[in-house]
Design brief:
single chain, 296 residues, alpha/beta, 3-stranded mixed beta sheet, 7 helices, 20% helix, globular
């Protein structure tokens, strides 16, 4: 068993990523799994986890906006679809790739698939759809829906498509926020679903409850998360050991510290004597420690 590691470049947008390079080795050490750098034609490959989603049987979902745009937030310059598919096959065993088009408006990752559509089992895909024709998300999400309806799985069969609604438009300081019910987190015994104080929250939760009959569906108020760090500093850390999911929700009010500074975050998670210990650190641009806390 090996864990493949792609480089991370801040979604080809942000520069505060100096400490991220330590994360793969830390996770490999914790899981006792060797870490392998993904390389293609002699060069390291950049693909974030949120850019891909798989059914565990050989089919992978991704978007052209995220991986193929020639000018905006380019992860791997001059990569073709064939290049990506070769990487997915070699390192993930993928034999079939379903390419969607564009992501939702306001997504600073520029098209992450985990805001658009997700596998809920090996042959079922949930996808977000905007019903308001005047909304900027309407056309790209309709295009994605048509692509999914015409797509095939690795076995040649058509996937089952389940439609999720979109919440109403959310803005912060004049910018649209990438609110999406597709950005849920699957754990061993439950599914955490973002909610937005919206009338469609309940509809989305009920739809996902039908998709995951063996898991509890838990709504997590997420408006502050997608607003960034303007009000509070919030982190969700998840780790699984011995098939028992452990969740630690940490909320630290660090507004005075963070305001007017370029602050970088690093988190280390260790399980010792059946206790999850999380060490959080905040650094400035010169990697001086501004804050460090240990939570058990």
């Amino acid at each position: 068993t090996r864990r493949s590691s792609d480089l991370f470049n801040g979604w080809a947008k942000y520069k505060n990523i100096q400490l991220d390079k330590f994360v793969p080795a830390k996770m490999g050490e914790f899981l006792n799994i060797p870490v392998t750098q993904v390389v293609y034609k002699g060069k390291p490959v950049i693909v974030e986890g949120g850019a891909i989603d798989t059914n565990g049987r050989g089919t992978l979902l991704t978007s052209e906006e995220c991986l193929m745009h020639p000018d905006i937030q380019v992860r791997n310059p001059n990569f073709t679809k064939a290049d990506y598919e070769a990487v997915f096959k070699e390192y993930l065993g993928i034999t079939n790739v379903i390419w969607l088009g564009d992501g939702i408006e306001g997504d600073d990752t520029h098209g992450h698939i985990d805001d658009l559509c997700r596998f809920v089992n090996e042959d079922t895909i949930v996808t977000i759809v905007e019903t308001d024709p005047t909304d900027k998300n309407y056309k790209p999400l309709q295009d994605n829906l048509k692509r999914l309806q015409n797509a095939k799985l690795e076995n040649g069969k058509s996937p089952v498509i389940v439609i999720l609604p979109m919440p109403k438009r959310l803005e912060f300081e004049g910018l649209r926020l990438p609110a999406s019910y597709a950005n849920f987190l699957i754990l061993n015994n439950c599914v955490l679903v973002p909610t937005f104080n919206d009338s469609n929250d309940r509809k989305a939760l009920n739809i996902l409850a039908e998709c995951f009959p063996d898991r509890e569906i838990i709504g997590i108020s997420s408006t502050d998360f997608i607003c960034g760090m303007e009000d509070d500093y919030r982190i969700l850390g998840f780790i699984s050991k011995n098939l028992n999911s452990k969740m630690c929700y940490i909320e630290e009010q660090l507004k005075d510290l963070i305001n007017n500074q370029n602050v970088y975050y690093y988190c280390e998670m260790i399980v010792k004597d059946d206790m999850l210990i999380i060490t959080q650190s905040l650094f400035d641009e010169e990697e001086n420690i501004l804050f460090q806390g240990v939570f058990k």
